[in-house]
Amino acid sequence: MGNEKPSTKNQVLKILREMAKKEPEKTVSGENLAEITGFSRVSVWKAIQSLQNSGYEIESGKTGYRLVHERQDSVMPFEFGENEAQVVFIEETSSTMDEARKIAFERMNNPEPKVDSGLEVSYGKRAAALGRKPVIVTCDRQTDGKDRKGNKWISEKGSLAFTLVTEVSLPASKASRMVLAAQVTVANTLKALTGRSYDLKWPNEIWDETGKVGGVLDEVFVSGNRTKWINLGIGINIVNKFSRKDFLKTFMTMYKEIENKVVKYPEILVAEWNYYCSDINKKVRNSSDGFQGIFIGADDAGFGLIKNSGGDVMRLTPGESQLI
Strands 160-166 and 304-307: what pairing? Predict the structure, then answer.
């Protein structure tokens, strides 16, 4: 999703990892690291210090540096190479949705900030400098996350919580299409990582044969009759089957294709969502008014569709309805 030059930390860590695999007891000097990466020795030294402070055990000695132990399952931005600026990591936060909202407003209010790469700047300003590119906000621990029903969802180690900040422009009435897009992207990402298929349920869930494994929560800001930004909060609770970094890298790659469908080919997106939905042609009841019928899928606005025995079709509004 990005084309920025990988940072000093990314390059230094990459070299130390390669060295640790081939010759774990061997060190590499700061001079050699500077020569290989093309960065100054001071930049290399600062990168080493930052990596050590971030939990990577790097031994420093007269002959140079070596990586002794990794930070386990790290999702630090520099782990994402050229996409580093599109990842915001916070050790602990009340909710990644709260942090993503700040970024969305900062990008909207200051669309072309001047960022001096030599200065420490807020992650919001760095993200704003990316223009309309999506940004992922993630954390190690989320203390006050919420699901669609408002129930508290605390993410601890072994689960993954992140919010995708997007500036997709859609008619306000079609905003929930993005939830379908997020579900499809999550399902495709999980399939790529595990080799297994996953089911989608309206309005926002991802399931496997054991039950619910993930969900999507959306927050939308509208100006006039079009969306200015749509943030998608995503929670996955089977991360012990793969690394969080691999999930986010794969998700970022797959989302690029899905977003194109959202804007240009919504009929393809909806067909894909309906294909993965496990409730198609099942008898259901709308939670809000008791309307019963056969669930026939979702439409291009992200609304659910139920057809009763008389042939009448009811459109179910996301956020207000649920299938029972």
Answer: unpaired
